[in-house]
Design goal:
Blueprint lengths: L8 E3 L9 E4 L2 E7 L5 H16 L15 H11 L3 E7 L2 E10 L2 H4 L13 E9 L8 H14 L5 E7 L3 H9 L3 E11 L2 E10 L3 E3 L1
Parallel strand pairs: 6-7
Antiparallel strand pairs: 1-10, 2-3, 3-4, 4-5, 5-6, 7-9, 8-9
């Protein structure tokens, strides 16, 4: 499941940053940095969330590769490669994750290839997913607010994310955070089926309300 569109945000002041700890029901909900040892957990969450969220958007068989042992190595390499990878937990359970970092030029450029003046200070949210049975409990909002604070502390001033046009849940989630489509669209080849994505952009000074 993709992040819930019920999360609410407000603008943070300069003193608010870091890892979030909140109560969700009776269990402590946290966001923490992923480690190399989390690779199997990240692979399992990746598989469960993509199969739930994208099975109708992508051709049959596209997601079969998520079941391969190589996915754990992919996640181990991602954690070791310098990207910001955070995991949301509730009690003892890992329930979602986010991956973000400096936006590559191809992702931040305008349709004509020109770069904005703040390209060097723009971060890309590559992936933000919450496992289906833990949806609508604020985990997606905690992940976005926390990764935004972490990258804001490194000098980032703006965020971008690519969202499938056919995914209203994610589009609404980011809009509630003040991230709106900037008019840039791309079409990916998803195993023979075109997948149209919209680029959204918005601020990094986010706090859940």
């Amino acid at each position: 499941m993709l992040p819930s569109s019920t999360d609410n945000f407000r603008t943070a002041d300069a003193s608010e940053s870091g890892i979030l700890d909140t109560l969700s029901g009776m269990a402590l909900a946290r966001v923490r940095a992923a480690t190399f040892a989390d690779a199997p957990t990240l692979a399992a969450l990746h598989r469960a969330t993509w199969q739930a969220a994208y099975s109708e958007l992508l051709p049959p068989g596209t997601l079969d590769g998520l079941d391969t042992p190589q996915m754990q190595q992919v996640w181990a390499d991602t954690v070791a490669g310098g990207a910001t990878v955070l995991i949301a937990t509730e009690g003892d359970d890992s329930v979602g994750f986010v991956v973000a970092g400096p936006a590559p030029e191809d992702d931040v450029a305008a349709a004509d290839g020109t770069l904005p003046s703040d390209a060097a200070h723009t971060m890309l949210v590559s992936t933000l997913l919450v496992e289906p049975r833990w949806g609508r409990r604020g985990h997606g909002g905690r992940l976005l607010a926390t990764v935004a604070a972490v990258l804001r502390d490194t000098g980032a001033t703006r965020g971008i994310v690519w969202v499938p046009a056919g995914d209203p849940s994610s589009l609404n989630f980011y809009r509630r955070a003040g991230w709106d489509p900037d008019g840039t669209v791309r079409t990916l080849d998803a195993n023979g089926r075109p997948l149209r994505e919209l680029r959204l952009t918005g601020p990094l000074n986010l706090v859940l309300t």
